[in-house]
Amino acid sequence: MDIKGHVSIITGSAAGLGASIAQQLAAKGCNVVINYSRSEADAKATQAACEAEGVETLLVQADIGDDAQCRRLADETMAKWGRIDSLINNAGMTKYVAHDDLEGLTSEDFANIFRLNVTGVYQMIRAVAPHMKAGGLGSVVNISSAAGESGGGSCVAYAASKGALNIMTKSLARSLAPEIRVNAVCPGFIGTRWQVAGSGSDEVYNKRVKSLEKSTPLRRANTPDDIAESVVWFVEGARWVTGETLLVDSGSHL
User: Fold this and answer.
1) Does the predicted TM-score (pTM) go above 0.85?
2) Is the pLDDT of residue 55 over 80?
3) DSSP state at residue 119
């Protein structure tokens, strides 16, 4: 499907995976909405990179965990272009706590993580759904995690939130069809600044990269650009695919 001239909202797209997705969609001719909560400088850099591809952009600061701000994000997009063709739910958060440290997570930690990783995704889909249905060919891609399948990841609350997101993907794929497709990409290692910080040091991070390059079946420690390719495929190439959760981890789950 040709997505030139289409409009895509990418939440949490100031940097990292979200920025890679925005830039790859822009390279396909898709107009993009760059959303950020705090990193304005990074967001503007991503916006400039997308505009260098010859597309139009919209920069919107919004907290995806807040329903009113989700609706405002959709409204501002419609005001500029009058259409929303795809939504990439990339914004998320975690806390690094060992899974056996049962005192390391509070009820507030769970609430905060679910607020953005699950409730925020639902709110964004709800905000754009009427506009996508009007267009008749909408695509939602939720950025989940391999942790939602394996129960691993940065903490128990994060894994649980991504497991919930995977089930919500299936539920909404069923209820929003046939006008809107809903799928999820579940990355393993990505190599973002988030994961560098979670490693504790550059040395530990680099050792992990080298280990993955030796141990994964495809001998690859994935990058944001690698994951973004799968996201773009769901937007432009997976016309008859919905309700799927795609593991993208170079085979490390094997």
Assistant:
1) yes
2) yes
3) I
Burial 187-223 (b: 16+ CB within 10 A, else e): bbbbbbebbbebeeeeeebeebeeebeeebeeeebbe
Kindly write down the DSSP assignment for every residue of 169-222, as one continuous string. Answer: HHHHHHHHTTTEEEEEEEES----HHHHHHHSSHHHHHHHHHHHHHHSTT----
Structure token pair of residue 47: 């916006």
Over residues 6-16, the mean pLDDT reads 97
First to last CA, the chain: 32
Secondary structure of the chain: what % helix, strand, coil (to 5)?
Answer: 50, 15, 35
- Catalytically active residues are 158
Give the model's pLDDT for residue 198.
57
The C-alpha atoms of residue 120 and residue 51 are separated, in whole angstroms, by 27
From residue 79, alpha-carbon distances to 76, 130, 210 in Å are 5, 14, 47
For 117, which DSSP code? I
pLDDT-above-70 percentage for the chain: 96
